[in-house]
Amino acid sequence: MPTKNSRQKKSSKSHQINNVDKIHLNRGLAQMLKGGVIMDVVTPQQAILAEKAGACAVMALERVPSDIRADGGVARMSHVKLVESICKSVSIPVMAKARIGHFVEAQILESIGVDYIDESEVLSPADNDFHIIKNDFSTPFVCGAKNLGEACRRIEEGASMIRTKGEAGTGDIIEAVRHMRTINREIDSLSRINSNKLKETAKEMRVSIELLKEIQKIKKLPVVNFAAGGVATPADAALMMQLGAEGVFVGSGIFKSSKNKTDQLLMAKSIVLAVTNYDNPKILQEASRKTMGSMRGNSVMSLNEKEKFANRGK
Amino acid sequence: MKKKLNKKIIIGVLALQGSFTEHVTALKKLKIETLLIKEAQHIDSVDGLIIPGGESTAILKLMNENKITHILKKYILNGLPVWGTCAGAILLAKKVTGLNKATLGVIDIEIIRNAYGRQNDSFKESVRIPKIQENQFPGIFIRSPKIIKIAKDIAIFGKIRNKEIVGVEHGNILATTFHPELSNNLRIHQYFIDKIKS
After folding, report:
1. Is the pLDDT of residue A62 over 90?
2. Which of A123, A116, A146, A143 is nearest to A132 (CA)?
3. How many A-B residue pairs are in contact by the CB < 8 A criterion?
4. Sequence-separated (6 or more) residues with CB below 8 Å from residue B197
5. What domains sit in chain B, N to C, each tagged with a CATH number?
6. Which residue in chain B has the smallest CA separation from A287?
7. Global ipTM
8. For a FRET experiment, which of A275, A279, B152, B189 has its CA 20 to 30 Å from that of A50?
């Protein structure tokens, strides 16, 4: 049995600040992003457009998920120069993706100074067994989850924010809905079980009983939970918010909605508006009216299990 | 303004983006009724307003989109008690370095966005707030702005490291560059409530 992450080095910065404070500050940044939209961008120009549209953060990556799906090949961390130029182009927080388990990509992203690292199933996983030990970093991480067990495991590894995995790059919302509903249902069912059953559940989920007790008490995850994977319209975004998401990631949904920049900006603005006013059908109608059509997409039903990004990283 | 000492007050929390639920939770602990404000017409029903932390560019954009900016400015100039935390402080400031759009501009200070750097430079620091006899308020600074200039008539509300101004007050307006809504210390929330009631 190999030692868990035997070669992962501790981040040098993580010693300067105590751990409790670090967790507080990193979870706190996610709290500041709530009610907002985080947009995938592949160029500084797109980042500027996203900021102009009212995005609360951008996610820097080399290809949006729908292109990764179409092109195939190995999807890795973005080029350092690209991440750097996106960081320089906007004043809002910049996130960037590292492969699951690829702690060196994460170390590089941390040394660039990105504000958040997404350990993402959208990229090709680098480790079949282990995720990054995120507690060793000072930069906060967001991770995807399909259910409460995955969410809890990621939190115990040090994730400061969770998002549904959904099925990125499809423009099909069904998986994000499934994941959000599953997490909600599992949190809800925690409230009805006794301490013996809680121990069993903790064992099944491979997480600590303390974390489950905390969730049982506060009736939500102890970190912010966003929706991601398949959001393609203002209505999709508002649907996720009504299901309890605290904010929304939009990947291919904006820059694949049209080739025209004005249309892309309209889509971006409309999704921002829809997330804030998610419970107001009149404003949602206006927001939807302004868009010029959404990405064509790719029904999740047409994918086989191997093609699903959500199956990566358990 | 009428005396409200015994009157039940309602505090509005601007709920366009950011940490508005944290402010609501803090106020609920102090038994204060709250109202989430997303549209201009709701401002009329509150006795005070909190502008929460979040992304100032996103909040400003949504304020303009939901046609709140002008109306809110009018209310504040007419004396509505208002408190901005972090992004909220940016939106209240007259001059913002690094933001080329008009804010509410109701308090004569100059502020720089993300002045301390990126997330890895976020920090905790004790804030000295003489007005509430607090020497060690747990200041949480997340990608915080920095107040670099204040007009003569603006009162200093809080300082860190004996020099940096992190809170200012002027009449009905209070601005802090940190996040009391993320700490368990409710004393600034209580101070704001008392301010509304007096």
Report:
1. no
2. A143
3. 110
4. B4, B5, B7, B9
5. 10-197 (3.40.50.880)
6. B65
7. 0.94
8. A279
